[in-house]
Amino acid sequence: MHPYRTHKCHELRVEHVGSKARLSGWIHRKRDHGDLLFIDLRDHYGITQCVIEASNIHFKTLEATKLESVITVTGHILQRTPETTNTKMPTGAIELAIEECSIDSVADVLPLSVNSDQDFPEETRLRYRFLDLRREKMHANIVLRSQVIASIRRRMIKQGFMEFQTPILTASSPEGARDFLVPSRVHPGKFYALPQAPQMFKQLLMIAGFDRYFQIAPCFRDEDGRADRSPGEFYQLDFEMSFVTQEDVFAALEPVLHGLFTEFGNNKVITSTPFPRITYEEAMLKYGTDKPDLRNPLIISQVNEVFEKSDFSVFSNALANGSVIRAIPAPNAAKESRKFFDNLNDWARTQGAPGLGYIIFSEGTAKGPIAKFLDNTRLEQLKRLTNVQEGDAVFFVCAPQKEAEKLAGLARQKIAQDLNIIEQNCFKFCWIVDFPMFEYNEDQRKIDFSHNPFSMPQGGLEALQSKDPLDIKAYQYDIVCNGYELSSGAIRNHKPEIMYKAFEIAGYTRQEVETQFSGMLNALKYGAPPHGGSAPGIDRIVMLLAEEPNLREIVAFPMNQQAQDLLMGAPSEVTQKQLEELHIRVQLPPEQA
């Protein structure tokens, strides 16, 4: 007999009754009935109930052994009586009668409970993550993550993609987020950087002649943590394809995501392929965001013409000064109490706005603080533009365009949540396309890249030479699910002259481009195929499938929001000898010196 187990803790059934078995695992629960001690024994796979009689020489030992200690038990399998059968457990029809027992490892008093859903402070959970991961939900989340990654690999390989690994130590990039830097011992004063993404390497693989690449890629960015992104590092399905259009990239990714969410989505309704395409401009107008939650049925409208030269001077004067007016419908809100409207106004003030004006259409008339300023013609025009009916209300945002887009988008979500009209039990996907190639950087007072600087502008070199940069669209796209951006991607620029011109518009000299992007630029000069790709975030995909609100619930060993690993004590100080080997002197800020 094997020294630790003949079966795993999920395997034993009625057909094993009478046979001898050996199990190993953690003591999940104990129930002491005086002459009998029941132990729920847990391993990675499941739980089996074990029982030992008071007459057994091991009874006192097991009675004194703490929860989460590791034991090995041997005995015969018994069938439980009908009244003691546990139908909620796969092994609930049997139990193991302990005859022999050994204590493999004794547990101390636990800092958190493993056998319950009791909530514990995040600091405790992260400091004792190995215990937190024993809890049923957390354990299932990490198993799900593994299964999702395995499924992605199968689906990508089936489509002809090959998995390659790209460097972890690479050069620092001036674009994007802040790099994590790694000092070089053998090249004093010089630094490697951990990759923010394998962007250049995957393009170089296409230039090298490989046709379809993918990897489950670790990415590193020195940025503040968010609920939907772990500080420090995250993983993405990174892929690239040669000789493709934007639609070819969509056609490759859509069946992977649709299949993945069908496989692990617990029978939720999933957007059928092809996923809807929504332009960036349309998304910002209708949803107030470039990552719209399409489970929300509300559509924002621009209603400038309703208030132009109207008696409502607050809006008409703002329009004359360049603001816009966005309207958010609230279906059946006429039946809501005054408190509903007051709460939304209070909420708007927390967002830095003076409030949300509104009109209620009820009992054949228009009510609310703004209604008296609009005649019937303007009210009918408003109803037509916003598609509201009798019994509905309309809320308004008046501000410069960027501010109006943001607040209207937030108000759209808030109103839908308060009215409880967000569709449940579904995953709604869409592509956001036609992103602007450039944007105006207010802080630096210059034109800058708005998305990926290595993207192909729509219209190519001619567009860069002849159009207003702020009017140029790029072959850039995001895929969004339930309000979360899963991926950014683009058709890449594969021509050196376009790269020079695009960076010139963003304020780079030819020499700066050749210095900072020499590897990519040189490669483009030796015959580069048209190519493109994308990189859906693994963490966000698993977070959605696990129905968790926070990435830390689906990452095995995450950092906290301050980018600290409480379990391993990172970041940590290093010895003076290590610093000297790296030719580094630490200069702390004054408050820490």
Can you characterise this structure?
With 593 residues, this protein is of the alpha+beta class. Helices cover 29% and strands 24% of the residues. The chain contains 18 helices and 24 strands. It has an eight-stranded mixed sheet with strand order 6-9-10-24-23-22-19-12, sandwiched between helices. Strands 1-2-3-5-4 form a five-stranded mixed beta barrel. A hairpin with a 3-residue loop joins strand 1 and strand 2. Helix 5 runs parallel beside helix 16 (518-524). The longest helix has 23 residues, at 136-158. The radius of gyration is 30 Å and the shape is globular. It starts with 19 loop residues before the first strand and ends in a 12-residue tail after the last helix. The model has no long low-confidence stretch (mean pLDDT 95).
What is the topological layout?
Blueprint: E1 20-32, E2 36-42, E3 47-53, H1 59-64, E4 70-79, E5 94-105, H2 122-127, H3 129-132, H4 136-158, E6 162-163, E7 181-183, E8 191-193, H5 199-207, E9 212-221, E10 232-242, H6 246-264, E11 269-270, E12 277-279, H7 280-286, E13 301-302, H8 304-307, H9 313-320, E14 324-330, H10 338-350, E15 357-362, E16 365-367, H11 376-386, E17 393-399, H12 401-419, E18 426-427, E19 429-433, E20 438-441, E21 446-449, H13 460-466, E22 476-481, E23 484-491, H14 496-505, H15 510-516, H16 518-524, E24 531-534, H17 538-545, H18 576-581
Parallel strand pairs: 3-5, 6-9, 11-18, 12-19
Antiparallel strand pairs: 1-2, 1-4, 2-3, 4-5, 7-8, 9-10, 10-24, 13-14, 14-17, 15-16, 15-17, 19-22, 20-21, 22-23, 23-24
Helix pairs in contact: 4-6, 5-16, 13-14, 15-16
